[in-house]
Amino acid sequence: MEIIRVRDLDIGYGRTVVLRGLNFSIDKGRITVVIGESGSGKTSLMKTLIGLMPPLGGEMVLAGERIDFNSERSLGKLYRRIGVLYQNSALLNSLTLYENVALPIRIHHREWPKAKESALVRTMLGRVGLRDGETKFPYELSGGMRKRAALARAMILEPDLIFCDEPSSGLDPITSAGLDELLLELRTSHGVTFVVVTHELRSIARIADRILVIRDGAIHYDGEYSDLPRSDDPYIQAIFMRKADHDH
Amino acid sequence: MPPQEELKRFFTLLTDMIYYTGQYLRRRRGVLPGEIVRQLYGMGYRSFPIICLITFLIGLTISLTSVAQLKMFGADLYLADLIGIAMITELVPLMTGIMLAGKIGASITAEIATMKVMDEIDALTTMGIVPEKFLMVPRLIAITLVVPLLIALADFVGIVAGVLVAKLSLGMPASVFIREVTAVVTLHDFFTGMGKAMVFGWTIVAAAGYKGFFIERGAEEVGKSTTESVVLSIALIIGLDCVFAFVLY
Fold this sequence. Notes:
The structure holds 2 protein chains of 2 kinds. Chain A is α/β, with parallel strands linked by helices.
């Protein structure tokens, strides 16, 4: 079942079109990985999907509802249904870990009793393995802990899907693998839908259910990750040869 | 960027700030609970020692230089009039504005620009939070509450400096100095100074927010934006002060 459907989407800045005529869907309860070389337009695509950059043309439908990028109300509906894990974590440095995770509740559900807020925040922190650090500030945390905290914040209001921008960026391989395991666990045990933008081949191999490869301003490959090795496309094969080189 | 585009951005942010403040005062939503108190602490409590010190030193300097001149004409008594009018209507609002531009304006720009560079502003947006409301409304409300208190305090400290010089240089009793000041300075003068300072405060927050929100990407731009914010605020304050002088006198 698809949660997002994109039709003839053109993405760019001003008169410069970065990605043209995109058509794809994002399936519920799965991890879709968007991969592409630096400057291929991965970040622009993600910015459009999360409502930060209006497309130049085409349309995006979220859970059956067309998103109007010029309407605050429509964008508001989009924001209520998504969570975003940013490359820099983007936690607010003036707030503690607990306050960061509780922020969406305090803004959108001020009427909730403190006990309800506290229970939900602690559950979410427990789910990402950060129950002990709730009074710490983001600058007191390691990169991996910040990513986990940002993931807890993204999930706190139980959005339909979570976008992750380069989740492994700046993390050592062990911490990065730990984060991959967390995404897999959340997908498996809680049915969370993820869209992950990355170029970490090891991470892709571990988490991807489905792959979107962006190249030359278009979708070059859209299919199951498990089908990738059987592709006779030289570019796709080149990506996998790089992976093989890394593994050795 | 062309100047007309910069002006458009500045006035868009200014009108957004005013609109969102009105909206917040009606509905009390979109701002983190406790944030206004945090801003009051940062802007008020942490600013008043330096503002008191500066206004005291300015009061002292103006009094000492004036005493020498007034003595030559036998017009010693007018020291109280001069200090009262000059400090309350002009020097205290202007110097407080400049001090706040350096302290609060720089801090607002640095904080918001860093948040922008670190994707925190985008994160707020995708959490369904309006960053201009979330960040600017508490600061605008805090400066509105803090400026009258700071000005009243700074007026008092400036007058005390005049009293000290009058006592030590002229042997004038404090009671005579105070009586003369209260006879010359009207409530209109007091509120004129207060009103000017209030406008300066709002200008600082708007200029600082503008320089923070519209930073070009890149951490190295944060320092540059912060400097530009202080320069812009001070230039606007002095320009506005000049306009006030034309309109009021």
